[in-house]
Amino acid sequence: MKQILTIITLFIATLSFGKTNVRVDERQELSAIVWRLAGCEEYNTRMNSQHLSEIETWFADLKEHPVMDFIREMRAGKDTMSVVAYNSVPMSGAALLIHKGKVRLNPDVNLSEYIQNNDSRWSEENFRKYVKLLDDFYRKSNFRKFYEGQSELYASYIEDMETLCQNIIEEEWFQQFYGMELPEISVIVSPASGINNYALNEDMMMAMGKSGIGALIGVTYNPQKSGINQGSTTQILIHEISHYFTNKIFFPEYTERLTAAGAKIFEHLSEPLTAVGYGAPQIICPEYLNDLCMMMYSKEVLGSSLTKELRECYRRGFIWAEEGLRYMENFSENRDHYPSFSDFMPQLVGLMEGIADNIVAMKKDFYTPPYIVTAYPANGSTVSADITEIIFRFSQPMETGITALELNEEAELFIDDTWYDTHDDEPEYWKDEYTYIIRVGKKLESGKKYGIVIPSSLYNKNGINTADDYVYEFYVK
Question: What angle do CA 466, 469, 472 make, to 5 degrees?
Answer without folding.
Answer: 120
